[in-house]
Amino acid sequence: MALRFTLRQLEYLVAVGHAGSVTLAAERMNVAAPSISTALAQLEAELGLPLFIRKHTQGMIVTPSGREIIREAISTLAAARTLAELSGQLRGTVTGTLNLGCLLTFAQILVPQLRRGFVEVHKDLIFHQTETHQAALIKGLHEGTLDVALTYDLALPTDLMFINLGALPPFVNLPADHPLAQRDSVSMADLAGYPMVLLDLPYSTDYFLSLFEKAGVKPQIVERSSDMEVVRSLVANGFGFSISNFRPISNVAADGRKLVFLPISGPVQPMQIGLLYRKGAGTSLTIQAFIDHAKTHLQAVLPSLILRA
């Protein structure tokens, strides 16, 4: 049986399977939603199988057959990337596709400049980036939709490799008129007496709460958000303090109000920032070239983004 489908159709299939909707997949891939819908319809017609159940209120529900096809599509796409990389290795050039994932809390600061420097050197490379939380980054590496991730050392599986690029001590974000804002530093015990706005993301939440637990105090959480900019704006408007590890470039929140950043005194565990990838992936010329580039770039810029006591 001669099947006629493209790798692009398989990419769309995997993207919709992971996103649960054509609209969200289109946003993540920067592609028009009708193009994805048409490609999926053509793929289903070619395979002779329904891959999704389409429900207006629930999005795209993967059928049992669809789950099996998606699993094989992931393997096929990985094999295609390996083939492209092999041809590049034989020519001694970096080619093919690189799929980078990054923790969304600092992606906007690090990834664009990091990406620009890499693609300017390797002009034949197709570069895709994804910004998401830690659990999704780990899932993407396991499923092969991501080649490497820039992230913290949070809940790292033993089957993934982590290259540590530096330690980021936690610090507190305060509104400019906060009673603690004029201090040189604060302790976890100092913070426990004031309301807190928690950055609520998988694994990150556990880390922030562990800082209080190890200090023997409890936080007064009054608000939560999974969006770092929302957290900063809530803090800047006096709803509470928050804790971060990655210092923003500006001390102004998204709505224009000012923030104050103070180091946290005492024994507090820093986050380790680095590169996460599958074991054996470093043998890929493309992935190794990116790892080398990222190590050089990030070790140069990270010191300016750390707030130390």
Task: Please provide a written account of the structure.
This protein is of the alpha/beta class and 309 residues long. The protein has three domains: 7-69, Arc Repressor Mutant, subunit A (Orthogonal Bundle); 93-167 and 272-305, Periplasmic binding protein-like II (D-Maltodextrin-Binding Protein, domain 2); 170-269, Periplasmic binding protein-like II (D-Maltodextrin-Binding Protein, domain 2, 3-Layer(aba) Sandwich). It has ten helices and twelve strands. The chain has helices at 7-19, 22-29, 33-47, 64-91, 107-121, 134-143, 188-191, 204-215, 228-236, 285-301; strands spanning 52-55, 59-62, 97-103, 126-132, 148-152, 160-168, 171-175, 195-199, 220-225, 242-244, 259-263, 271-278. The strands form four sheets. A five-stranded mixed β-sheet has the order 4-3-5-12-6, with helices on both faces. A three-stranded antiparallel β-sheet has the order 10-7-11, with helices on one face. Strands 1-2 form a two-stranded antiparallel ribbon. Helix 2 packs across helix 3 and helix 5 crosses helix 10. The chain is globular, with a radius of gyration of 22 Å. The mean pLDDT is 88.
